[in-house]
Specification:
Elements (H helix, E strand, L loop, with lengths): L6 H6 L7 E4 L3 E5 L7 E7 L9 H18 L8 E4 L15 E5 L9
The structure holds guanosine-5'-monophosphate and zinc ion.
Length: 113
């Protein structure tokens, strides 16, 4: 998937609207358009990164921004939350711009489906 066709890159550029929960120079956290829990956010680097091997370089920034979103929405008061990264079609990945899902506000099953 090219950068110009990427939905998350378009959100970063403001070409597609999204509810912005937290943001740094490097990372954006938005509300998912199709939430799978009462709270469902997506945290991704503003840079178009497709491959997992480049995730460690932005992991600290991603988690710092996720922490800001957790605090902003007071997710720790909800009893638990889940952070997920789907990598590859078999894992359910649809957008080829790496991102963490942050889900909260309902019980979660283990193992995930
Ligand atoms: P994946 O399946 O790649 O792990 O997750 C992609 C996520 O992006 C899905 O949960 C989907 O609902 C979300 N998504 C796809 N397009 C948009 C969009 O235009 N805006 C927002 N806010 N979320 C989107
Ligand atoms: Zn992208």
């Amino acid at each position: 998937m090219s950068e110009t066709a990427c939905v998350f890159c378009k959100i970063v550029e403001g070409e597609i609207p999204a509810e912005r929960i937290a943001e740094t120079d490097e990372v954006l956290v938005i509300s998912d358009i199709n939430p799978q829990a009462p709270h469902h956010y997506l945290a991704f680097p503003k840079q178009h990164i497709e491959v997992f091997s480049k995730v460690p370089g932005v992991a600290r920034s991603l988690f710092e921004c996720i922490e800001a979103a957790v605090k902003k929405r007071d997710l720790e008061s909800l009893g638990g939350f889940r952070i997920v990264m789907n990598l590859g079609k078999a894992a359910g990945q649809e957008v080829e711009h790496i991102h963490f899902h942050l889900l909260a506000g309902r019980p979660f099953q283990w193992p995930p489906g």
